[in-house]
Amino acid sequence: MTALTNFAATPDAELAPYRAICRSAIISAVMAAISLPLVVLALVSMKFQVGDAVPLGLLGALFGAVALILGFVGGRTIRRFPSEYTGVRLARFGLFGGLLCMVAGTASAALTYTTEVPDGYTRTGFWELQPDPEQPEYPVPPRAAELSGKPVFIKGYMHPGVASMGKVNHFILVPDMGTCCFGGQPKPTDMIEVVVKEGKERLAYSPRRIKLAGTFYLADMPTQSLGLRNVWYHMEVDQVK
User: Above 50 in pLDDT, residue 7?
Assistant: First the structure.
């Protein structure tokens, strides 16, 4: 009887109401947790010149920005409805962690982009070497002819055709590691035959993105190299990063 009386006398205020964890706060914390290792990898890449800090930093900054926005939204929601939602710590982690990752990721990408091209070389990319859809009769664009014989800086991936050859100074550079590149025949304008100059360090096959600086050449006629056909572009490389 006494136990029932004590239970009945318990004030409703002592019964804590159920509060859901704010969904925005949860997602914000997850985005910040994803962003952090990407930004760390970008900073390591920038410092030790391994890999490419530009895409890593930008991707980390993107996740950080999402974490920042959702952290702000989550914190505001919790303040407006304190009896319905909880998760302030998660929102703060996403907010401040996202801010830090966004700033650090953007800075590492920007600094790398502005300093990675050696003096005297022109930045280019495979996007400049694609044929003009308005001039289908030409297999290569005029830009390729303009770059021929000039020092350029370009990024790409080693074609897996040399994966079993150990360290090499001769390989095909492609713009990405799509399905067509795994033993397949890439598009003619998605290939650059690379020859590393004598005296420079040879390279072992790696799936990571590499940076090359050297002299670009456009062939008069497409050639065959390393088992691949229709190779128009060639490059004599001075520097590899």
Answer: no
pLDDT of residue 178: 73
Give the up-direction half-sphere exposure of residue 10: CA atoms within 13 A in the CB hemisphere. 10
CA distance linking residue 124 with residue 187, whole number of Å? 18
Per-residue H/E/C for 151-176: EEEEEEEECHHHCCCCEECEEEEECC
The pLDDT score that the predictor gives to residue 11 is 53
Question: Which residue is listed with tokens 């990721």?
Answer: 105
Q: What is the pLDDT of residues 136-184, one digit of tens each?
A: 788 999 999 999 999 999 999 999 989 889 999 999 999 988 745 555 7
Radius of gyration of the chain measured on its C-alpha atoms: 27
Q: 62, 65, 94, 91: which is closest to 76 by C-alpha?
A: 91
Overall pTM > 0.85: no
Query: How many CA within 13 A on the CB side of residue 78?
Result: 22
Least-confidence region, from 27-36, 45-54, 66-75: 45-54
Task: Map residue 181 onto helix, strand or coil.
Answer: helix
CA distance 175 to 160: 13
CA distances, 192 to each of 101, 179, 200, 211, 233 (Å): 35, 18, 19, 13, 5
